[in-house]
Specification:
This protein is α/β, with parallel strands linked by helices. It has helices spanning 11-15, 44-49, 52-55, 60-69, 74-83, 88-110, 126-141, 150-164, 203-211, 234-238, 241-252, 310-315, 361-375, 407-430, and strands spanning 2-5, 182-189, 215-218, 221-230, 255-261, 267-270, 272-274, 276-278, 286-291, 303-305, 323-326, 329-332, 340-342, 351-354, 382-387. The strands form four sheets. A seven-stranded mixed beta sheet has the order 3-4-2-5-15-6-11. The chain starts with a strand and ends with a helix. Residues 1-30 form the signal peptide.
């Protein structure tokens, strides 16, 4: 498997070799903002220490999103918590507590609890994303008096990531403890393709915030949803973040669905997931091409299959967007050398080059979650759903002149969230 860092101006070349969906695999990234639009630069030393994601934080749009949501106060509060830590153990407690508070604050805001603290709509997932980066950046440059090795700092950053994404708070009672209540696991993603349009929101992340901890009513009784959000970074997936977060919850769940943003104007239930990384740059502008790296690669299948009740989902009237059972894949047939598109799924012995959900991280989280289902021997429905692309309103599509939000943008996101809630209800009832 190859791993390279891709400059934004070269990403178009990467796309020429990609076999993913036109819009599931994101479009080429545009050049960065002109210098006149950039904030005053930090020192070269400080900037070099920050990640690519963290370096975007000082641009005007992220700062506006933080200010207009009230999340601009999160980082200063975190700094004060760190200053009160006199040992690694105290720092660890401060980090986990701050991360969990950030996640819960975002969930509460999305679900209408407490003051909105700003004029951005409550359904907006972007304040969580940018506030998390503000925290990781502060932690990355913190120099406590008790001394902090790089390995210890890395461990703290991992705890901050997991706690601020809801990954370590997907708690269900043991099977049989809450009789009659189904357990549903749902995952979403961070915004991505931020160098193309830094205003971007991800409706899958917004759905995770809107539904985390909620109970939906089905014809068979109540069902509780536990949700988390994942990064758009190849490296985190290779390090096992999906399996680490989902192994426990899936073992206690009755249903799961991974969710990401897909095509314009439609929802897809992805039938097949492929074991292939297609190379598009992630949020760190890193490219990965090759087999999806998993433990025990000797037993790794080329394909996994959804066990969601796709026929019932497609047949139900769930909302304004049409829903499709997507069976298309790209494979190298057994004995062949060139990729072939198969509209009806993979053929025996073929090598994956793109699942129904493409060859980007949306396909990979679906592949990893369904492979985990199979390796744990779980007989539960689960798979991937692609939302429509979240679009800005007419007249607000140019990132160079557009605003960070508009009424149509908000309504599109609300409609997607509502339709995903209905799809999950249908899936729970059909299962």
């Amino acid at each position: 498997m190859s791993r390279i860092r891709v400059r934004p101006e070269l990403l178009g070349l990467v796309l020429l070799t990609t076999t993913a969906l036109t819009l599931t695999t994101p479009p080429p990234l545009a050049a960065a903002q002109p210098l006149a639009a950039q904030p005053a630069a930090r020192s070269a030393t400080a900037t070099a220490a920050f990640t690519v994601e963290e370096q975007r934080l000082d641009r005007a749009v992220p700062q506006e999103i933080l200010r207009r949501s009230g999340f601009d106060a999160v980082a200063p509060d975190f700094v004060r918590s760190l200053r009160g830590a006199d040992s690694y153990a105290e720092a660890e407690r401060a980090v986990v507590r701050s991360g969990a508070r950030l996640w819960q604050r975002a969930v509460d805001r999305a679900q209408g609890r407490g003051p909105a603290r700003g004029d951005l709509s409550r359904d907006d997932d972007r304040p969580l994303y940018w506030a998390r980066l503000a925290l990781t950046r502060e932690l990355r440059q913190w120099q406590p008096e008790f001394g902090l090795s790089e390995s210890a700092r890395t461990a703290l950053l991992g705890k901050l990531e997991r706690s601020s994404r809801g990954q370590d708070s997907m708690d269900f009672p043991a099977r049989g403890a809450a009789k009659g209540v189904k357990r549903i696991v749902l995952t979403g993603f961070d915004p991505f393709t931020l160098d193309r349009d830094i205003r971007i929101s991800n409706p899958s992340g917004a759905t995770a915030l809107a539904l985390d901890g909620t109970v939906i009513r089905t014809a068979d009784g109540p069902a509780r949803i536990e949700a988390a959000v994942f990064p758009v970074r190849w490296g985190d997936f290779a390090d096992g973040t999906v399996e680490q977060a989902l192994r426990g919850p899936l073992s206690r769940a009755d249903l799961f669905t991974t969710v990401s943003q897909g095509r314009v104007g439609r929802i897809d239930v992805e039938r097949f997931n492929g074991a292939w990384r297609g190379g598009f740059g992630d949020n760190e502008n890193v490219s990965e091409t090759g087999l999806v790296p998993v433990t025990d690669p000797a037993s790794q299948p080329q394909w996994t299959t959804t066990s969601l009740p796709y026929r019932s989902i497609v047949a139900a009237g769930t909302g304004r967007f049409p829903v499709y059972d997507n069976t298309s894949v790209t494979e190298i047939p057994a004995g062949g050398t060139a990729p072939v598109v198969r509209p009806d799924g993979p053929t025996p012995g073929s090598a994956a080059r793109a699942g129904g959900g493409g060859d980007y991280l949306s396909n990979e989280i679906a592949y990893r979650a369904t492979l985990l289902r199979d390796r744990l021997g779980l007989d539960i429905p689960g798979g991937h759903v692609h939302t429509p692309v979240l679009q800005f309103g007419a007249g607000n599509t140019d990132p160079a002149t557009g605003t960070v939000t508009d009424p149509e943008f908000v309504q599109n996101r609300l409609d997607i969230i509502a339709q995903l809630r209905t799809i999950i209800t249908v899936a729970a009832e059909a299962s």
